[in-house]
Design brief:
Layout lengths: L3 E11 L5 E11 L3 E5 L6 H8 L7 E6 L2 E2 L5 H7 L3 E4 L11 H12 L5 H14 L16 H13 L5 E5 L7 H17 L4 E5 L3 H7 L2 E6 L2 E6 L1 H5 L4 H10 L4
Parallel strand pairs: 3-8, 3-9, 6-7, 7-8
Antiparallel strand pairs: 1-2, 1-4, 4-5, 9-10
Helix pairs in contact: 3-4, 3-5, 4-5, 5-6
This protein binds adenosine-5'-diphosphate and magnesium ion (MG).
Magnesium ion binds next to α1.
Amino acid sequence: MSEAAIRLVDVKKTFDGKEFVVNGMNLEIPKGSVTAIIGFSGTGKSVMLKHILGLYRPTSGLIEVLGQDISLLSKDELTIFRRRFGVLFQGSALFDDMTVLENVCFPLTEHRPEYSEEKVIEVASKKLHQVGLDPKHFSKLPSQISGGMQKRTGLARALALDPEILFYDEPTTGLDPILTEMVDNLILETHRQSNGCTSVMVSHDLEAAFRIADYVAMLNAGQVLLFGTPQDFFKTEIELVKRFVAKGMKHR
Ligand SMILES: Nc1ncnc2c1ncn2[C@@H]1O[C@H](COP(=O)(O)OP(=O)(O)O)[C@@H](O)[C@H]1O
Ligand SMILES: [Mg+2]
């Protein structure tokens, strides 16, 4: 296996000092891969992601991202380190009072002070183009475009700083099947276009996870129950994994 983009070693997290919502998690996500995180709801997928993003600190254990032990970073250093990530959550989390273009310019203006205004607009436009958004929508507000275009805008904004890791948390939850397929394909296309980028996607959509991911990690009760290729999942003997996969793939 190639170098790890993300490494978790025996990570534990309790919020209340009693219950461990992450309970000895071990995981290595290879650099350059698309990795899907799956599992029943409430098993710690989002909490795990927030640890990797440095938004939560583990109670114990090691979290290494891009070779960096993130527990050693101060708050300010973390903020800077996080610019190497792009994040797209379920709601696209766009600024309602900014146009499509302004939304994508925002991280650039914020974190690339050396860029001229022209350069910011040029880079933002390029990212919007990459995700397939027509320039005629650039000056619209999020409320004036479709849900699919909002996703594209959110993704363009996540791509603005050329991230080394792209995180998606339930990017297609609540979308209709056609939009879901569009977003899944967009994730894969974006991954292919972003050279050497690592993509990590939490998904409730197993069909998509097994179709687009190189590796899949199934979490259960705050641990990794199985990590492997989609093939590994189809031939596993672990009863809980078998049941989860069978349920999720029943429409095949
Ligand atoms: N900030 C928090 N404080 C306390 N408990 C939390 C917090 N965030 C998540 N949890 C709990 O951690 C568990 C895992 O949540 P989560 O990671 O969001 O699940 P999911 O796998 O559905 O993404 C849940 O029991 C949830 O209630
Ligand atoms: Mg979640």
